[in-house]
Amino acid sequence: MLHTANRYVSGMVMDSLHHWARQFRIDGFRFDLASLFTRRDDGSIDLNEPPVISAIQTHPDLARLRMIAEAWDVVSYQLGRSFPGTTWLQWNDTFRNEVRSFVRGDRGVTAGLIRRLGGSDDIFPDTPEDAYHAYQSINFVTSHDGFCLYDLVSYDRKHNEANGEGNRDGRDDNRSWNCGWEGNVALPEAVARLRRRQAKNLFCLLMLANGTPMFVAGDEFLNTQRGNNNPYNQDNETT
Q1: 3-state class (DSSP) for residue 77
Q2: How far apart are CA 158 and CA 228, in angstroms?
C-alpha cells in the first residue's frame, strides 16, 4: 500500500501518471483500493482535499483522462458520493452483488435489480446538489478477482485447494449457483444448456443496464478456472 499523504509518494504517483499519459498516450487509469488516496498521515480519512485526487483533478492533462476508482480499501467503503473524486468513474460492486443474486433466484431482490439496471441513482444521484451521472457507474458481474462468468454458474463454492492455503483464501460470498451439478466432471447436457443460458442472462443484464459495462476477457467464450476464485499464484492453464 502506498502512503500517498506523503508528498514524495504523491509526487511519484503524479509523475508516473503524467509519463504514461504523455509518452504512451494512455487515456485512462484504474486505481485499486482507491480509498487509500484519502488517508492522512495518521490513517484517518480526508474527504475534503486528498492530495493525489486534488492534483489529478486540477492537472491540465490528467484531468481530461478517464479515472476509475475501486472506491474502497481494507476498512473504508466510499462508493458513490463518499468518494471525493466527483468526476471519476467507480466500480459498482453493488451492481455485481444484486445482479448475481437475481439471476441465482434469490427472493426479494427484484427492486434492487431494477435500480441497478436504471443506473444506480441511489449511489450516483443526478441531482443539482450532487450532479453525478449514470455512466460513472462501472457495472460488472465478474472481474479479475473472484469467479469468472462460467464458474459463477458452475460452482456453489470456491475450489482453491491448488493455492496451498487449505481453501481458506478467496471470497466466500460468491452468490453463485452450479445449476444443479458441481463442476464439470460427467456434466449432464441439460445442466450444460442451463449454464449457457444463465451466462447469457448475466451478460445480457450487464449490457442492458444504464452505466458503463465492464467484462473480463475470456468470459465471452466461457473460460473456466475450475472453481478457483483467487488464482493469484497460478501461472498455468488455470489462468
Answers
A1: strand
A2: 6
d(CA 162, CA 232): 11
CA–CA separation, 236 vs 69, rounded Å?
29
Say whether pLDDT at 75 is over 90: no
Over residues 30-35, the mean pLDDT reads: 95
Cα–Cα distance measured from residue 96 to residue 98, given in angstroms and rounded to the nearest whole number: 6
- The strands making up 89-92's β-sheet, listed across from edge to edge, are 28-31, 66-69, 89-92, 137-140, 212-214
Residue 225: CB partners within 8 Å, gap ≥ 6?
A: 147, 148, 151, 231, 234, 238, 239
> Which of the residues 15, 27, 32, 173 is marked catalytic?
32
Q: Is 32 a catalytic residue?
A: yes
pLDDT grade, residue 161 (50/70/90)?
very high
Mean pLDDT for the chain overall: 95
182 vs 178: CA distance, rounded Å: 6
Active site residue 49: no
| CA dist., res. 53 & res. 84, Å (int) | 8
Q: What is the pLDDT of residue 109?
A: 97
- Give me the catalytic one of 41, 46, 61, 70: 70
